[in-house]
Amino acid sequence: MGNRLTQIATRTGDDGTTGLSDGSRVPKDHLRVQAMGDVDELNSHLGVLLAEPLPDDVRELLVVIQHELFNLGGELSWPGGELLKEPAVLRLDEALAHYNAALPRLKEFILPAGTRSAALAHVCRTITRRAERTVIALAATDPVRPALRQYLNRLSDLLFVLARVLNRANLDGLGGDDVYWQSERMKRLDNGN
């Protein structure tokens, strides 16, 4: 891995390029840099979610995910390197199975709403999907291990499930259930009723 930062303002990016961990430089709009930025944005939004009241087990899981996302971003910045370990994807699969088992089966689409923590989990989910799309686009031109794509795919599913869990946890007193899309309500509104 490259050198640790000892100063933040290096001015080496003033020419529109940025350095990767292997010492190479790429334009700041390179797909690799975009993927790194999407993962960084996701991790930052998880930090906002972690500032909310959360069940202890969910909090512990999200902290682990933050560290794994840092590894994932580090691997994106290190072409040919490997930082995200294989058990990370399995850990998400296990968490998905665990949390999904306690939820009622979905009978309708749900809206990204409810408690603040659930809504933030949905924001994280959508950023994860964007990061996944960017990594897929990058993999079409540069080598990227499949584990990175798989991790992001599982994580977006897990964040959807965790949003449902957080609505039911009702730690802010504003939730209790999913917020369902009401297609019949929309039909009535469209018909003026």
Automatic annotation (TrEMBL):
Pfam families: Cob_adeno_trans (PF01923). Signal peptide: none annotated. Keywords: ATP-binding, Cobalamin biosynthesis, Nucleotide-binding, Transferase. It catalyses: 2 cob(II)alamin + AH2 + 2 ATP = 2 adenosylcob(III)alamin + 2 triphosphate + A + 2 H(+). Its EC number is 2.5.1.-. Residues 1-25 are annotated as: Disordered. It comes from the Bacteria. GO terms for molecular function: corrinoid adenosyltransferase activity. Residues 8-165 form the Cobalamin adenosyltransferase-like domain. Residues 15-24 have a biased composition (Low complexity). Belongs to the Cob(I)alamin adenosyltransferase family. This is Cobalamin adenosyltransferase. The lineage of its organism: Bacteria, Pseudomonadati, Pseudomonadota, Betaproteobacteria, Burkholderiales.
